[in-house]
Amino acid sequence: MDVIVMPTAAAAAKLTAQIIADAINAKPNFKLGLATGRTMEPVYANLAKLNKANKVDFSRVTTFNLDEYVWPKKAKKYEANKDSYRYYMNYHLFNKINIDIRNTNVPDGSCDDVDAAAIEYDNAIAECGGLDIQLLGIGRSGHIGFNEPLSSFSSRTRAVTLTQTTYGQNSPLFDNPEDMPMQAVTMGVGTILEAKRLVFLATMKEKADIVAKAIEGPVTSMISATAMQMHEDVVCILDKDAASKLEGLKEYEWSFKHNPRWAAYQKFK
Ligand code: F6R
Description:
269 residues, seven-stranded parallel sheet, 8 helices, 10 strands
């Protein structure tokens, strides 16, 4: 695992976008796993900017999002449902880049058989050859995707019940906080670990404790993000606030500076 600490949240998002853009440029039919949430908004703004400047081409890219809420039958269709992750993705990224919208996938949380659709989702990822990069954020509960504490490390895409912690984290984002569903569909920890590379981004002081546990703490299903420690190709990009509780901070800074893999990215510091 590599840990890169940037001076600001904006710099961390810019670096994250550049790493993704460079990977796409090296493999145009890229399979990209995406995340939603506040942390990712500046990443998508940067990717849209790079696309507009012809510095990355999404025309052959296929995307799979980590998660979506399970919507009650009366909820509006995704395109009109501002609280849905499909809406988020269209708004923050897909409508701003040259991607073919038919190549964008978000788990289906409004169909009649959410469980069957979840299995199909995993199959679709496997059929296209697996994800080249999975982008990850972290929730206050330590979740990646919506894999709440005690999610099995071999779990697959499935419906889950969200914790009170996550309800507290996300319900303020809804126009009417009580509209936040208690269930969601999420890629499993096992599905995530199958991606060829994990790119993890966390910013802000409020994430410092959980980030330290995720990166340096014992591997435990109580904190799904600790599963990243079992993956062979992970980069964790943090701003200095989110990194502030890491014990090995100085060593990570040293490694970033001297690891040839990151030579081209020193200028982002
Ligand atoms: C959402 C997702 C979640 C978020 C996490 C952090 O697709 O994967 O794990 O990354 O809840 O959300 P923010 O960035 O809003 O703090």
